[in-house]
């Protein structure tokens, strides 16, 4: 007696050669095989596709964070320049008012 492990039971129609299947059942076999391909594709490629989408979202967020950090650095430089100019003006005022 030949026994097929349960995990292989649902894949047995993949072994059918469409040339050897009767016409009246060919459409059902083809439909089953197509559905199997769809399930396998969604299972394996679907998870990869979701991971890629998640990675793309993460990259976009990091890009936004980098832009904000660049803007923060520019503002910090501008604040330093303003403080230096203010200090120079105060020093000049003190010097000329003596």
Regions with little confidence, pLDDT below 50 for 5+ residues: none
> What is the strand tally?
0
Number of helices: 2
State the domain count: 1
Q: What overall form do the CA principal axes indicate?
A: rod-shaped
N-to-C order of helices and strands:
HH
Strand content: under 5%
Assembly state: single chain
The helix content is over 70%
- SSE class: mainly alpha
Write a concise synopsis of the structure shown.
The chain is mainly α and 98 residues long.
Task: Please describe what this structure looks like.
This protein is an all-alpha fold and 98 residues long. The chain has one domain. 81% of the residues lie in helices and 0% in strands. The protein contains two helices and no strands. The chain is rod-shaped and about 110 Å long. The N and C termini lie far apart (114 Å). The mean pLDDT is 82.
Q: Helices and strands in order, then pairings?
A:
Blueprint: H1 6-9, H2 23-97
List its salient traits:
98 residues, mainly alpha
């Amino acid at each position: 007696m030949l026994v097929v492990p349960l995990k292989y039971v649902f894949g047995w129609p993949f072994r059918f050669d469409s040339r050897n299947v009767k016409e009246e059942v060919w459409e059902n076999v083809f439909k089953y095989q197509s559905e199997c391909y769809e399930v396998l594709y969604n299972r394996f490629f679907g998870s990869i596709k979701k991971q890629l989408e998640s990675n793309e979202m993460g990259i976009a967020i990091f890009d936004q964070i980098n832009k904000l950090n660049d803007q923060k650095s520019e503002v910090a430089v501008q604040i330093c320049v303003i403080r230096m100019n203010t200090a120079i003006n105060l020093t000049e005022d003190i010097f000329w008012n003596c």
